[in-house]
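Before relying on records like the one below, remember that each one covers exactly one chain. Contacts with other chains, cofactors or solvent are not represented anywhere in the record.
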Amino acid sequence: MEITETELQTQTNNLLDTVPFITIKNDSELEEANGILRKIATLRKAAKAHFESLKKPFNEAMANLRTKEKEFLQPMEQGEFAIKKLIVQYNAQREKALKEEQTKLAQLSKQLEEQGMSVLPTVTLEKPKLQGTSERTRYSFEIVDVNLIPREYLVVDTAAIGRVVRALKDKTNIPGIKVKVVKDIVTRGL
């Protein structure tokens, strides 16, 4: 049976109004507090289910919209990538040709200097100005030998350590790791 949001709110408020008055000094009060705790857990579970049912159509619609957007944008992104790659290749060819020309001119300048002439020809490359497009230089890296990387750049795999600790518990023996025991209260609803 689905509980309405109003009923859920009323039951929750009534139950939570009792929380400030809870004391636990004996087993009877412990049982009473546990009963309230389990009722809260049951109401929380019902509230989650209620809101999940409200969110479900929106989540499905959003997933469909993201899929459609991806399908729509993918050909555009592929086209952009292909053209950008061609522009980078073209610019690299131009820069290579410029360097070759500068090397030839440097050799010619040296020959002229040796003959007593002081001519210093220069060549500069004017890149075409493309409206709305510019070239950006970014730097990346690749790891060639992980053993040479300084320790401050290494990241501890806390997820892997957590899996080992949960599996081996207090028998875990990982250098530099101290196992901590944390007690939590877990509640199932009614």
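The chain has three helices and no strands.
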